[in-house]
Each structure stands twice: as structure tokens, then as C-alpha cells.
Amino acid sequence: MNEITVRAHTNIALIKYWGKANVALNIPTTSSLSMTLDRFYTTTSVAFAAQDQLVLNGQTADATRVHNFLDMLRAKYDDFPGVLVTSKNHVPTAAGLASSASSFAALTGAMFRLLELPEDLTEMSRIARRGSGSASRSLFGNFAVWNKGEDDASSYAESFYDEDIHLSMLVAEISSAQKKMPSTRGMQLAQTAPTYRSWVEKSAGQLEEMKAAIRQADIEKIGRLAEDNALGMHEQNRLCAEPFDYFTEDTRRIIAFTQECYKSGLLAFVTIDAGPNVKIITDKATEKILLEKFRANFPEITFDVAHAGGGLEYL
Ligand code: DP6
């Protein structure tokens, strides 16, 4: 039996994707920029089978999203039989890292090889985008930009800067009893905020500044921009027609502590995705001292350290 196995890493956006210009095609309202992480990844195997089926972390799981994605491939390319998708997420569930990014990137890579499609990363990124927007960026190592585009052909991610600039992320694993607002719905609600347009406009300028900061390996500037962009994203959630908030008390405590660390002269900034967890942006030279401080101040919270990771790998 022909089985293909692929690994893709998660990514954290420094300039966020948070809104859809076209829901069916997953075309975003903003271009976004991310760093792929070395520590967290998904491994996915695919093989033809009687029907579409998903085994996730060793257990049969709801295959609806995978099945819809495979049907999209069937419509776009030649029809093909059912597919058994066996996937393992090496992402701590409490870390609030989008496993959909690494999952759909890995599934895209695996399906392209199974179907013997030309492995063109631009086309693969367009396809991964249809599974989950952030997945379009997870095919690439280090820094990737997803240019929002205006239609299916023009909306894809590409490698922006394929070098390690010694950026570190401390990932705080805050667990939350709060019912989670899925990102797909959350971002569409956020788009109803009266301030949403201005966040989108600001984001375009921040993207260009972020690109310059990465090229200069200016982590302080990267951190400042990423923090402002992320806090702005979360502000839209609070100001929209049906307000919601991913932050918990722990989220706010960690943000405040990070800002104190920065005031005391340490490189430390936050970014936060669709959950309560905080990622602290710093550099490799500062990560140890920062980690000690966070562990001492928040003994009940687990902190991981991640660095820039590589792109899609066939195993
Ligand atoms: C906050 O890619 O999970 O992580 O396209 O609806 O699947 P869908 O959304 P998803 O959204 C990720 C949002 C984010 C920011 C980002 O990764 O850019």
C-alpha cells in the first residue's frame, strides 16, 4: 500500500490574519506574516481507503473538515477514492497553538504526493489555505508572508525570510475552562466592530514595518509591532456586535508582567491568538533569564521555549 508521511510545523503570526474577505475561499482581509516554530508540529500519513477517515492522535475522529477538504481536491483535480488520514499533533493541547495550521499544511503536502501532483509550493499554499487560512504559511520555514490577494489564484503564502534571526518565543500554557470561540467564527464576528476597518488599515502599514524589522533582525521592533497588532486584534473582539474575549485573568497577569520586564530593560513582548495563551517574544540571549522570571512568578503555569522551525518535510 502506498502511504505518504509528512511533517509540518505550527506557525505564530506576528502580523495576524483575523478576518475573511471571502468566506468560501478563505481569502483574508489582511496580509499576514508568521514565524514557523521548531517545537510544535503535526505528522500526517495518507493512504487510499474505502472511505475518508481520520485517525487523530490514535483515535477515530470526526472527519467532516478533512472530508470537505478532500472533496475540494476531488472537484479541483481528478476524482480519487477514499483516503485514510492518520495524524498526530505534537502540540500541547493547552498551549492554544493552532494545530489547524500544521494539520492542513501536512495534509496538503501528503495529498499532493499521494495524487502525484506537481509539488509547487505556491499551489500547495493556495490549497492549504482552503483547509485553514493559517495553514497556507506553515509550508515554509522561518518567516512566511501570506499575501491576501483578491481571488483564489492570488491569495497564497510564500517564504519571506528563510533565516534564523535568533528570535525566541516563550509559550505559556494557560488552561481555560472558558468555552472556546473557534477562530473561524471569532474573526467573522470581529469584522462587525466599528473599529475593524482601521485595524485592517493599520495592519497594512505594520506589515511593511515588520518586514523591514525582520530583515534588520531588530527583535525589539518586531516585538513592539507584533504586540500592538495582536492587542488590536483582540480589541476588535471586545468591540464587535456580539462581544467576546479570549483573555482570562492569567492572560492579563502575564501581559502585565511581560510589560514590566520590558520596562526593566529586558526584551519582552506578547502576542496572543484565538485563546487565552500568551507567547512572549524575546531573543535567544534573553530567553533563559526571562524563563526563570516567568517560572518563579507563575509556578502554576507551564512555559515552553520555541525557535524558528523548518518547512514541510516528507518522512
Ligand atoms: C489568530 O487559520 O485557524 O491564529 O482559516 O478559519 O481556519 P480559519 O482560521 P485559522 O485562524 C488563525 C487566526 C490566528 C492568527 C493567524 O494565525 O494569523
Automatic annotation (TrEMBL):
It comes from the Bacteria. It is an enzyme of class 4 (lyase). Keywords: ATP-binding, Lipid biosynthesis, Lipid metabolism, Lyase, Nucleotide-binding. One of its GO terms (molecular function) is diphosphomevalonate decarboxylase activity. Pfam families: MDD_C, MVD-like_N. Signal peptide: none annotated. Residues 8-157 form the Diphosphomevalonate decarboxylase-like N-terminal domain. Residues 170-300 form the Mvd1 C-terminal domain. InterPro entries: GHMP_kinase_C_sf, Mev_decarb, Mev_diP_decarb, MVD-like_N, Mvd1_C, Ribosomal_Su5_D2-typ_SF, Ribsml_uS5_D2-typ_fold_subgr. Its EC number is 4.1.1.33. Belongs to the diphosphomevalonate decarboxylase family. PANTHER family: DIPHOSPHOMEVALONATE DECARBOXYLASE. This is diphosphomevalonate decarboxylase. It comes from Lactococcus ileimucosae. The lineage of its organism: Bacteria, Bacillati, Bacillota, Bacilli, Lactobacillales. The gene is mvaD.
